[in-house]
TrEMBL record:
One of its GO terms (molecular function) is hydrolase activity. This is Xaa-Pro dipeptidyl-peptidase-like domain-containing protein. It comes from Actinoplanes utahensis. SUPFAM superfamilies: alpha/beta-Hydrolases. Residues 1-46 form the Xaa-Pro dipeptidyl-peptidase-like domain.
Length: 61
């Protein structure tokens, strides 16, 4: 698995499940500090993207 941005976060979550078939991940340019990179980007609150992710996850439940 590899990717940037959101596609870099997906391998991290997948790895947490420790699937037997997963040999390697190659995330780059992904979120490393959710607060700094997503919620307070550049010191400015950005609630739109975080809200979109939250609402999408709630819709799946």
């Amino acid at each position: 698995m590899s990717g940037t941005s959101y596609l870099a976060v997906s391998p991290w979550f997948t790895t947490a499940d420790q699937p037997e078939h997963l040999a390697a991940i190659n995330p780059w340019e992904g979120v490393s500090d959710v607060y700094r990179d997503l919620v307070m980007r550049g010191g400015i609150p950005d609630t739109g993207f975080a809200r979109q992710l939250r609402d999408r996850d709630r819709a799946r439940s």
